[in-house]
Automatic annotation (TrEMBL):
GO molecular function list: metal ion binding
Annotated organism of origin: Thermoanaerobacter pseudethanolicus (strain ATCC 33223 / 39E) (Clostridium thermohydrosulfuricum)
Name this protein carries in UniProt: Peptidase M16 domain protein
NCBIfam families listed in its UniProt record: YfmH_fam
InterPro entries: Metalloenz_LuxS/M16 (IPR011249), MPP/UQCRC_Complex (IPR050361), Pept_M16_N (IPR011765), Peptidase_M16_C (IPR007863)
Stretches assigned to the Peptidase M16 N-terminal domain: 63-175
Domain Peptidase M16 C-terminal: 182-358
Amino acid sequence: MQQLYNERIDEKMLLQELDNGLKVYIMPKRGYTKQFAIFATHFGSNDSKFIAPGDTDVTEVPDGVAHFLEHKMFEEEEGSIFEQFSKLGASANAYTNFTTTAYLFASTENFYENLKLLVKFVQNPYFTDENVEKEKGIIAQEIRMYQDDPNWKVYFNALEALYHVHPVRKDIAGTIESISQINKEILYKCYYTFYHPENMVLFAVGDIDIDKTLDIIKENVRQDKKQGEIKRIYPKEPLSVYKKEVIQDMQVSIPLFNLGFKDTDVGFGGKKLLKKNLEIQIGLEMALGRSSDLYERLYNEGLIDSTFSFDYGGEIDYGYSIIGGQSKDPFKVRDIILNAINNLQFLKEEDFERIKKKYIGKFLRTFNSVDSIAYSFINFYMKEINLLDYLDVLYSISFEDVRERFQNHLREENSVLSVVNPIKK
């Protein structure tokens, strides 16, 4: 068993890779009353075209399969998995995003019984023609709900404008048309390709017995042989944005906007990706945080309100920043921001030092919550980042790093504006 330790924060993780390729990480947190486990596969909505290990032909599946598969995993012949977790006093959940599907539970009792249930149900799919058809109606309702959500639409309209062909521009749940093409054979194909232990990771955190935790996992995980690499096929994405503006009318009282910036410096993970992510996030905070001159100007002119926010989403093969909220004049907000970022004078070194300290404190607080630790671990793991490297990378970032990254990323030619306007009467 390998021990990963960071002296700066005095935190450690233990790593055991099983014979079938599954990587198990355990973080002991002595004295904590809550335990948390998360079992994740590197399979998200972006993975609709691939060559499975042992195959020579390309498999292409309908959009929304990863999300559909997540839904179906909670159904077994004996009934609902949620009910079984509930009887054991645990709160269970799952999620699918662009790159990952994860199954998890939090407990304060019966941790080992809950862990056994988690490992077993994720390793035992149960798909039938009948339950797949039934699920189509449920997910179709979910898709309609999101299509009627203005915040969801303004966001995905921005992604569609940023990207020409990359699958990140597509809704995670797919479309009603695409899910209608899903059948049990497609689900099983994706399951046995992407839910192989070699493509998965299990993370457990809390005041737990390391040997007992490992024994339960080894006893209940499938003893498959390693399968080799899954070849994921993504279309070649141009550096340019697809469309500069997307405007849509919906049932809102005040216009919503998302100003997006496409990241063109992509294709790497690990510490290099973590450094880039932090440089952009710190730069955005310096430029647009609530203590910034730019925020104060926009707020005082009545152009933004408390819904104003910003974020950067950086993955190995794509990345983008989104700045958004409500505004009576989204186009004026865009013009003010674009004019301001051409002048880097508002990026001040004293702000950099303050915000860097803020990020240090925020990260350290992560280790007060087993939930936060687990979610952060999986998020970083899928980007080939070790959670324990975070502070070392953060400390290495200079003010000049942020200025240079900000200047290269937030460029007008890489920007798009998505607006949802009130329906005209």
